[in-house]
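User: Some background: our group keeps a shared notebook of sequences we're curious about, and every so often someone picks one and asks for a predicted structure to add to the entry. Today it's my turn. The entry only has the sequence so far, pasted here. Could you supply the structure so I can complete it?
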Amino acid sequence: MNSKNNIKSHILAEDLSRIQMFQDMTNSELEEIVPLLNKLDVSEGTYVISEGEPGFSVFFIFSGVMQVLARTSRTEHPVNILREGDFFGEMAVLDRLPRSASIRALSDSILFELGKDDFYVLFGKHPKIAQIILERFSERMRQTMTDLEYQLETLETANSELLETYDVTLEALSKALDLRDADTDDHSHRVSDLACRIAAYLGLSPKIIRSIKQGAMLHDVGKIGVPDAILRKPGALTEEERALMQNHPMWGYEMLKDIPFLSSVLPLILYHHEKFDGSGYPEGLKGEKIPIEARIFAIVDAYDAMTSDRPYRSRMSMLDAFKELDRCAGTHFDPKLVKDFKKVMGYDTILPD
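Assistant: Of course. Here's the predicted structure to add to the notebook entry:
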């Protein structure tokens, strides 16, 4: 126990009789139990037991209020309130597993503590006590499950609403980025949808698919640092301008790296211009060292660019775009993913007779 204010003191049989579990016992039976107990004065805020520690004692509440706390991730959540006459700590003693929750005093309280060895003796010697403990054990399990199910449902609802808010924010930012580059109208949304289709076809996890969706929406966020004169230049870029443009993946990474909920999109943001043969940027990664999110995106990004109109050229047909992907498979693109992409896009159905 963590409190320095817990004081062992004298216990009378009449004190014990105030606890519901012991109310039907004779005075002589109570006198047998009294020497087994420690009486503890517990200050408000004290942790009587902590989650994860071994179960050495059972506690009976003589007076005061206790709060049951369960830990999820880094946060403790209240799951139950215990009051005078209740008891706790028996689960870890009975199943010999670590404590599954923490108990904290919500008020100054008086507890009776019973060591596990004496608890086993009491449990075996008094059938009524054993029955009460087992009934309360069962009820507490049901209540705990009900509370946890409710909290899980509440957390899932809150999480869903939060994710929806994130998505709306990302879409708004993506549209703003597309508007800045007038030649790429709704490009981010198209490549996001298409990249997710490929990821789903490959059987990637929902978590990875979501990171691809978000990363694709924000893949060019680093272009915020590129001057309009370069970003909207209709002709070829100079070597100096090209070098500046090639900074945008790193700039995007730096912009997003400290945002916790976007940590999973960083590989796509940083590596979407890497090439399968190692000739890409910013790090010159090669083959499967390039994260799969970035390898998928590189293909759909190139396909969308080829099949969209630009001021300096007309769009390619789907068939011509597929031929270009095939030509660059193994150099620019992962050759296996190019084949998967063509299957998803229905390549066989558009072949000329």
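Suggested note for the entry: DSSP finds 14 helices and eight strands in the chain. Strands lie at 37-42, 47-49, 57-63, 66-72, 75-82, 87-88, 102-105, 109-115.
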